[in-house]
Amino acid sequence: MTSKKLVNSVELCADDALAGLVACNPNLQLLQGHRVALRSDLDSLKGRVALLSGGGSGHEPAHAGFIGKGMLTGVIVGSVFASPAVGSILAAIRAVAQAGTAGTLLIVKNYTGDRLNFGFAMEQARAEGISVEMVVIGDDSAFTVLKKAGRRGLCGTVLIHKVAGALAEEGVGLEEIAKRVSLVAKAMGTLGVSLSSCSVPGSKPTFELAADEVELGLGIHGEAGVQRVKMAPAEKIVTLMLDHMTNTSNVSHVPVQSGSSVVLIVNNLGGLSFLELGIIADAAVRLLESRGVKVARALVGTFMSALEMSGVSLTLLLVDDPLLKLIDAETTATAWPHMAKMSVTGRKRTREAPTEPPETPEATAAGGGAAKQMTLVLERVCTTLIGLEEHLNALDRAAGDGDCGITHSRAAKAIQGWVKEGPALASPAQVLSKLSVLLLEKMGGSSGALYGLFLTAAAQALKAKTDLPAWSAAMDAGLEAMQKYGKAAPGDRTMLDSLWAAGQELQAWKKPGASLLPVLTKAVKSAEAAAEATKNMEAGAGRASYISSARLDQPDPGAVAVAAIFRAILEVLQTQGA
């Protein structure tokens, strides 16, 4: 089965993609009759060296995203994963030559088709009297034994675009640029790892991976790598990559050692989430620094992709101050990141947290028995929520991301950790205030914010008194805060439905002679009935409100969780004979 792609046609997808980039970037122009993009200010380059690169489509933003002052003059684009046509390469060379440039440097990734087509075009241009040089970049660090074809050209090529572009802006001559970037390329290596293959429009995936496998050392055209390894945490995968790249027994290794200074690229191969990319970047920086390597600059993003491949490549380039100056030089290329011109290593990455205001003494304090009772209640609530994790997740999948159980379990574990520390449970108000902070920090999401609001408001009502009317007033205050900021109302199919039902029953505590357990028992039953009733409601707030009511045939997970919390509280108090 072929993969789904948002294209107009398989045949024209490369043309359409390049046209779209040019349409949105006034600094670029298409070369009529060819799949070529050039700087729109080409005539301003008289007397300077022009830089042309390119290759197959499917590697976006490479290569056209790196056109601009301080980087490439233009690119020649092939079909997806196919080398560009010789005629188009030659047309691009002629175009920049006729604009009065002082020679043209072709920057070519080391693939047979690219070498042949760019090389043939160069020879034809030379025969016409045009000054042209070509550098072939091979930065692949996957192969431990040298292949006849040499190292493949990967994401490190982008750094060559940058260095060559900076040199051209300085007015350096053609032969000197070619010589210097060739030396830079020898101090560079790239290694990729992927969780999936990719598929050319109109075709099936290029290879298959088992659910517990990752591919190490693969190329950027969907070709398989050098090794398949078992799925592991990101840090272990990054360790494996760095070990492979820097192993001196590997003929294609990067000679990085303690004391070295490097530029690091963490490159998204197309389908990796930015969340995963950040985790990998963090691991790469920490692991390099733990080996005594100075990370001078770190580029994180998508620079050279392989369509939708869910993977990442790491590039290491050994640098000194003169080379860093070229890396830092200004460019207008849209795909080059705006990064700080300072070292990553050696910078303070954390700021001390602000001091918290001193706790004000409460008018009411809990005695030993009450403190023990609060501890038992918290423990029972936590074990209940942890036990419901999978059930709440299942209910939540109908309306969203299926993480309601995870967030409640995370909150419960945070509370368990706090209780284990043996805090002094001075008063109900202080306990509720502390719980609100814990949930806001640890639970996350809208649930954490809503619980935090409820508990913060409820705590205020318990500062002066903790009798039954005060607890009923605390419930009222919490509900008011939730409705004010959450914008939900009873009947909207949210956690508020259970809370509201319980709150209505707890109004009885305000009456003279009211008893704790009979009223609480009614409140728990009402909360459970309200939770069950949410399966027949149309969602009016929250993420579920965006889902067709026909698909919402289960109770709201938040309402179920609230009812379970009330049930846990009641059971502890019944056991204690409150």
From TrEMBL:
Entry-linked SMART domains: Dak2 (SM01120)
Cofactor(s) the protein needs: Co(2+)
EC number(s) reported in the record: 2.7.1.28, 2.7.1.29, 4.6.1.15
Record key words, sorted: ATP-binding, Cobalt, Kinase, Nucleotide-binding, Transferase
Boundaries of every DhaL domain copy: 372-571
InterPro entries reported in the protein's UniProt record: DhaK_ATP (IPR012734), DhaK_dom (IPR004006), DhaL_dom (IPR004007), DhaL_dom_sf (IPR036117), Dihydroxyacetone_Kinase (IPR050861)
Catalyses which reaction(s): D-glyceraldehyde + ATP = D-glyceraldehyde 3-phosphate + ADP + H(+); FAD = riboflavin cyclic-4',5'-phosphate + AMP + H(+); dihydroxyacetone + ATP = dihydroxyacetone phosphate + ADP + H(+)
Start and end residues of each stretch annotated as Disordered: 343-368
Domain DhaK: 9-336
Stated role: Catalyzes both the phosphorylation of dihydroxyacetone and of glyceraldehyde, and the splitting of ribonucleoside diphosphate-X compounds among which FAD is the best substrate. Represses IFIH1-mediated cellular antiviral response.
Description of how the protein assembles with itself and partners: Homodimer. Interacts with IFIH1 (via the CARD domains), the interaction is inhibited by viral infection.
UniProt protein name: Triokinase/FMN cyclase
